[in-house]
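To whoever is covering the structure queue this week,

Two jobs came back overnight. Logging them here so there's a record in the thread.

Job A:
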Amino acid sequence: MSAVQSRLVIRLFATFVWFTVLAGQFWRNLGGWWGFGAIAVIVVVGSVIGLSTQRSSARNRATAAGAAIGAKANATSNRKRAASAPDNTPTDRDIARGHTYQAALAPPLNWRKFPKTITAFLLLATLSIAWSYYPGASLLGITLQLITTLAALFLAVTLTWPELLRTLAGALRWVLALSLAFELFVALVVQHEVLPFFVDYGTENVPNAFYWSRGLLLSGGPIEGIVANRNLLGFIALTGIIVFTVQLRARTVRRNAGLVWLALAVGMLLLTRSATVTVSLVAVVAALVFALWARRVHDQHRRPLYVVAAASVLAVGAALALFSSQLFGLLGRSDDLTGRFDIWASVTQLALERPVFGWGWVSYWVPWVEPFNDLAVRKGVTYLQAHNAWLDVWLQLGIVGVILFAALVGSTLWRAWFLAVDRPRLGVKDTEPFAVSALLPLLLLAALIAQSIAESRLLIESGWVILIVLAVVTKRQQHAPRPMP
């Protein structure tokens, strides 16, 4: 298989992986857990093959480079001819700027530069099996967490930054387009609510939360799409807005096509009517404003910016404390955030019983073991998350886990910030133009962190994959800069 064909296969599979972690519920609703399990096996096997191929390619490139250096050192008899002929060997600067074929290849991952916070958090989660209140569920949870991490590493290690942007955008288009087609089919053809396939709830009074779609598209929503959850679909639409806007500004897609997909993402976000995503959108806009401000000033003159940013965070916190009822009303939510306050109280009370190391890692709660079988029940629905990623980590891994998780998120945010606001350093002089897509990690993290206050999605599937990908990629950009459109 040629190099071009090989990259095509990798990109196609990467798009499939992105689609699966974004729309895992689609596979579960369509084919049940057995069908989803088959998809997961494909992702795992493909990720292992992709990582192995990337490692072999990196080793071969290193061997070829070493052989070239040795041949040049031994060619003493041809020094004069070599001096008169032009040297076409690509420099690191050429590769970083994207002027060579080498730039189209993902650089080999230096495991010594791998984010230590990822290793520390996963190690603690694995060790928690020893003190877990539910060791069997913990074993299952950490297995799924490691599988998800494996998929994230495949994306981060085998793809270049332009390929990451391209494959993520492709998966988002598929999810949004299929969601619109699905909602249209339900509204126009089925004309009533649709439940997931292969599921028998044993009652005719099924709670609204269990429906795949309630067919409300023509009524203006809210819609659930193929992911069966309006908050999740809204966040996918917000991610699409970020990615499609970056592509348009970086001119990596045709303008008309890019505008169509951007309009679809905006429309889907509005149709979900998700208050959680509205808060995330505000956080993204705020991060963008501060990043663009930072780009306009020298790095030694950014103190006023940081002061304003800190004051803004304090002001938002004070507003939530003093005017929470009014603010929640503006977002169309009740005073208890649709039952979240009760869930947070239950989780906090349970976490206080094991505050240091927690009850044991389980990731998404399993409903067949205590204490998750009746920890968060509302209107006949047993919720399987704390609706706050930080509370979930505290419950499962204690204060120690919260510290490590905060270190993972904080260090990634730190690198993403300076990647977004500093010019690329490809030489001695700091004169390279800003890259539009350098803003993407910061904006995605802003959305994820805002979402983590009301949802635990940061710990599973697409949330965890995006976090790990950004942690690895931003770390790699520090030590081996590669072109960013």
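Job B:
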Amino acid sequence: MSLESIQDFIRQHLGLNAGTYGNDLWRELLAKRISTVGDRSPEDYLARLHNDETELHTLTSLITINETYFYRESQHLKLLTERLCPERLAHRAADEPVRLLSVGCSTGEEPYSILMALRERYGELADRLFEIQARDVDRAALEHARAGVYGRFSFRALSPQLQERYFSAVDTNHFQIDERLRRQVCFQPLNLLAADYPPALAGQDVIFFRNVSIYFDAPTRRRVLERLKTLLVPGGYLIVGISETLANDFGILALRECDGVFLFINESPVMGAPPVARTLAGTERTDRARDTGRTPPARPRESRPGVPASGDSRRPPDTSSHPHTIRRRSDPERSCIEYALIPATRSQPPAQDAPDGPAADAIHGEALALAQTERHQAALERLEPLCVAPQPRPRDLVLKAHLLLEMNRTPNAMALAHRVLEIDHWNLEALLLLGRSAQRQGRTTEAIGFLRRAIYHRPESWPAHFQLAEVYHATGQAQLAQREYRVVLRQLEREAGPPDPMAALIGAPDLALGDLRQLCQIRLTRLEASD
């Protein structure tokens, strides 16, 4: 018997694929483990795995990679707290918590990050509004998670403010999570290939299944997704890692895009999209939510005291970040809504010497790098000296507009983008941003107008074609969507180098180019099949 028989046993019982690591690494690890336990041959060790559950758990700990950290892929946490949780809370009875499950939770950084994000949004009400469960096949990792003690490397994406708020120092290099948070997460073992899942896991509103399926081959991924689907309530959400999205699109769950983030929804073909997905196609409700910077629940929730209400009064746009505000006016002869720039009445600070030349380029690059890692407030602060210059550069203003949009300050973002167009009538990034903003707010005609204008001036811009294809696709204009997806595919085939970072940041989803090609091809194939 060879080591391949042990690898087959691991694949059948745990779903783990040796190809994820490379066969040489697996063979070396298994040979070392056989020697450590004192077995004379692979046959003896395979027999041990069949009969010794403790050894199977030990081997699992050795072959799984528990590399994670707090606030990893933080855009998922933002989506959860700002869009998904308000919608799920609206669909729960007053005495029922929203149920969240972290599958493949490893050493606990993911479920604790979820809980921290919820506490930042809902305060101590999070304790009763949400139920968080965490599961992993690696029992040693679960013991680590229950202890809640982490080294400095786990905090590389967590802000110092959150670390100080939720952790206390154990020694110079280790920190323990707050006891109240530690008690709120239930950690238990789960083998995703087990014949039966615990009945208590049924009825989940949101499942995090991130950076787990990379260990599985396609048949195993499909099998696991079919099982996870049974745990979701109708309209529930499944979130996978950014690099795993397309590999898990088997049609078992509906793939949707929300605020630039892809996720899966448990909806039947006749059910239609649930509230968050419907807002992507454009509704007046989304328009109101974006203008106020809030996401209202799908229906009034007076019966849930303490939960942020859906009927917040409208407030005037915050104009502190820009010397203009906007006034929206409807033109009865047009189907879109115009935005007029009105100079603000507040006094301006005295002009200061602003960085220019290479120094300005360096600051812009630093702010762009922060934006690409979702550190929006830090990017905004770094960029500000360039934006208050007597004659600010359009690229600095449009990056600031992007940051404001990501921070849900939509009116300010749009006002700034319009200001850029006053300086440069054909600025691609400003047009992309305005198209994206209008799409989010359900102003389809306006979005199409901005994107067509971008394409007229820059027909080679695949982010503009992709964004236009998504608008057409969301609004059921199949033929036009197919045309634009084909254009994107052709342009990506000719893409010789990396895309322009600003245009890609504003106008494209957070996907590698290879995954973007696959997404366009999937969209195109399904649209063609429906004709």
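Note for Job B: Confidence is low (pLDDT under 50) at residues 269-275, 277-352.

Please reply-all if you pick these up so we don't duplicate work.
Q.
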